[in-house]
Structure formats: C-alpha cells, structure tokens
C-alpha cells in the first residue's frame, strides 16, 4: 500500500503567519485581552493597572515625606540614643529595617530640611510628594556640601541649588550640584562589597596623601615588593592602630582576648582593694541611664591574667587622698575598663534590654560624677559612645 502525501493547503491570509489563528493581531489566541495595536483605543485593563501604579507611586512619595518629618523629630528628641542605638543611621537600619543606602538617603534629605527655614521646608516637602524633587537630589546636596573645604555651604545657597534641580534626572542633577559648589571633577568616597571578605573602596587623594603613600611604599618595599596600594594601606593602618591603642591606654592581646571578669579572685587582693578595683560593671538597678546586666565572659587563660597584670603595675597611691584626685584616669584603670566593656559602649535601654555596643567616639564616663565625689575607680567607670555620654549628662543636669 502506497501512502500519498497530503497536498499543502494554501494560506488564505498571507499577512497572518499562523493560519490557525484567525486574529493576526493576537499572537496568542489563548489570551482573551490582547494588546490593542491602536494607541487611540487603549485596553481598559491596562488603563486600570496604570492608574493603580501611579496612585501607588503618589502614595509612596507622600509617605516618604511623612517619614522625613518623623525622622526629624526622632533626631531632635535623640530618641535613637534612648533606645540604645549609637546613631540615627544605626536606628534606621536595625530598628526600621532600611538598607544602608535607603537609610543614608533619608537621613541626608532630612538634615537638609532641618537646616532650612520652616516655610521653605514645607514647600520642599510638597515638591517631594509631587515628584518635582527627589531624595537623591537632597542627599547629594548634603553629601557634596561637606566636600567644600573653603567655606561652609549656607542654607540659602542650598535652596538656590534646589530650585535648579526641579524636574532634572539624577545624572544631570549631579552635574548641576558639582558646578554650583565648585567641585567639578571631584568624587565622593564609596565602599562596595566585592566578596565575602573583600570590599572595594573608592577615594580621591590629594597630592600630599599620594606623596605619603608613595614614600610609605618605598619604605616598606621589602615587605611589599609589588608595591600594591592595598598591602601598603594595611601595613600603615596596623602601625597607626597600634600607636592609637598605646596613646589611649588600650592593650589588646592577639591571643584572643574576649573580655575580663574583673570581679575574679585576682582582683579582690589587698592591692586591688586599695585601688577600688573590686567592683563589677554598674548594677542594673542603679539610677544611671545604662548598666551592664551581666559580667562579661572570661577569655582564655592568658586573657584572665590581663586584669591582674594591670593592677600590679598601677600606682598604689592614686586614690588614697580624696583631695588630690588626678585629672587623668590612670592607664592601668583605663585598660581594665576597656577590657571589661570589650571596647564597646555599655549603654543599655532599660525597657528592651538592647545594648548600644557602639565602637566609635568612645569616652570614659564616671557613674558618680567627679563633682559629686566620684573617683577613678573601676566600679565607677564605664565606656560610653559620644552620643550616649552627652545624653547621660543631659539626664543628670
């Protein structure tokens, strides 16, 4: 039996590549709502979606403007400090859940609003809600203004720049800001994560810094034969950090110091008692604005000897005479406080129990102020970051 091939059926509509689809304008016959090729007759479903998107964007902008006003009040009240955060940025990231970039944009925009008069602030807020101005424009003005070294950029000049940025795209806005501030060709610092343990840092160096970098690379060329800037920077930072530790009376052992429990038997010796070193971090029930609620865990054996060594080298007569209290806290005491508090702020929010743990701008705080007879004793000292130290004295006053 011989099978005859079926004759090829001619396509009655040569403009339709798919003869099984009677509607050539709809490539997918299963789609009941194909896009109308005639823009004069828009699809009702598409129009409804577009309206919803525009309404959502408008609502988002209005909500952003409200967030800026709230952040302004949070900073004015220093509420983030009372909640145990070292900075408003940390509060936005950890408490409000913003990413670092979003937090930076909102904080910088808010601080520009804080600088300008109330009448202009209200006008700018309306323009943010309407989309005439953006958060990135306000943030860039604040960021680039800090790079002007010859003078402080006044709010009046910032308002003039804002007027020129209305309706401008991001790249054009940056050009306008740099031109108005006289920073054409300048770049700002940027840090970008490149891997699990690598970060790309982009900075602009002046001539003096470049000269210092080249001299350092030459001095350390035996250890860095390829002259890599990253290796040179690491070596320079190690030297600088070790020097800063010595100047601040901080000793960190590389064997793995994780903390010191100062209430150990070593510190309850007769020599430690004469220095007032028998205390532990401040009692949680005290009236001070923060306290350590538990002793810091002990480190390895070599770390446990750290406190006793500091005691042995401390002068015995430091606190024997109340009327001759030295102005500076002895190095040995500073080292003990730093080790006990693990080099972090000890402020703790009494309601949530959250500890600040800030590592920047740390200062020694007397729990009982010196004006009220407080001494340079371990039990009377703690580490506070600059913000919480100021908050502490505001509460005391």
What attributes does this structure have?
397 residues; mainly alpha; 3 domains; two-stranded antiparallel sheet; two-stranded antiparallel ribbon; 14 helices; 4 strands; 45% helix; globular
Explained architecture:
By secondary structure, the protein is mainly alpha-helical. The protein folds into three domains: 53-181, no CATH class; 207-247, no CATH class; 265-396, no CATH class. It has 14 helices and four strands. A two-stranded antiparallel ribbon has the order 1-2. A two-stranded antiparallel ribbon has the order 3-4. Strand 1 (190-195) and strand 2 form a beta hairpin. Residues 253-323 have low confidence and may be disordered.
Task: Offer a quick outline of the entry.
With 397 residues, this protein is mainly α.
Q: Note the run of SSEs as H and E.
A: HHHHHHHHEEHHHHHEEH
| Number of H- or I-type helical stretches | 14
Q: How many DSSP E strands?
A: 4
Which structural class fits the helix and strand makeup?
A: mainly alpha
Strand content: 5-15%
Cα gyration radius (Å): 32 Å
Choose one word for the global shape.
globular
Number of domains: 3
Runs with pLDDT <50, length 5+? Answer: 253-323
Q: Strands of the biggest beta sheet: in what spatial order?
A: 1-2
Write the layout of secondary structure elements.
Blueprint: H1 44-77, H2 79-82, H3 88-95, H4 100-115, H5 118-130, H6 135-145, H7 155-165, H8 170-181, E1 190-195, E2 198-202, H9 207-219, H10 229-247, H11 270-275, H12 301-312, H13 331-340, E3 362-366, E4 381-385, H14 386-396
Antiparallel strand pairs: 1-2, 3-4
Helix pairs in contact: 1-4, 1-5, 3-4, 4-6, 6-8, 12-13
């Amino acid at each position: 039996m011989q099978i005859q091939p079926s004759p090829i059926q001619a396509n009655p509509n040569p403009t339709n590549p798919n003869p099984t689809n009677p509607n050539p304008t709809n490539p997918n016959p299963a789609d009941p709502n194909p896009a109308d090729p005639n823009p004069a007759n828009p699809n009702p479903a598409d129009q409804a979606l577009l309206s919803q998107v525009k309404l959502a964007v408008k609502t988002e902008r209005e909500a952003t403007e409200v967030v800026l006003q709230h952040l302004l009040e949070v900073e004015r009240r220093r509420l983030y400090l009372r909640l145990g955060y070292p900075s408003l940025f940390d509060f936005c990231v950890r408490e409000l859940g913003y990413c670092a970039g979003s937090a930076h944009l909102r904080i910088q925009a808010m601080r520009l609003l804080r600088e300008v008069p109330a009448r202009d602030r209200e006008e700018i807020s309306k323009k943010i809600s309407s989309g005439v101005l953006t958060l990135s424009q306000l943030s860039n003005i604040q960021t680039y203004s800090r790079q002007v070294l010859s003078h402080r950029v006044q709010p009046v000049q910032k308002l003039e720049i804002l007027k020129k940025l209305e309706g401008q795209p991001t790249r054009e806005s940056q050009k306008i800001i740099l031109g108005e501030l006289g920073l054409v060709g300048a770049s700002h610092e940027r840090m970008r994560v490149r891997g699990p343990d690598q970060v790309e840092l982009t900075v602009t160096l002046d001539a003096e810094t470049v000269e210092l970098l080249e001299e350092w690379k030459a001095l350390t060329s035996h250890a860095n034969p390829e002259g890599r800037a990253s290796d040179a920077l690491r070596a320079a930072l190690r030297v600088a950090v070790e020097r800063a530790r010595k100047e601040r009376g901080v000793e960190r052992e590389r064997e793995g110091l994780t903390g010191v429990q100062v209430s150990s038997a070593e510190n309850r010796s007769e020599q430690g008692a004469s220095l007032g070193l028998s205390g532990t971090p401040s009692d949680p029930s005290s009236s001070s604005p923060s306290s350590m609620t538990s002793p810091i865990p002990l480190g390895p054996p070599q770390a446990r000897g750290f406190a006793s060594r500091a005691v042995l080298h401390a002068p015995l007569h430091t606190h024997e005479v109340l009327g001759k209290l030295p102005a500076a806290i002895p190095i040995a005491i500073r080292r003990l406080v730093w080790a006990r508090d693990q080099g972090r702020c000890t402020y703790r929010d009494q309601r949530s129990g959250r500890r600040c743990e800030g590592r920047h701008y740390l200062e020694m705080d007397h729990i009982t102020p010196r004006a009220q007879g407080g001494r340079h004793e371990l039990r009377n000292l703690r580490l506070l970051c600059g913000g919480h130290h100021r908050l502490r004295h505001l509460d005391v006053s």
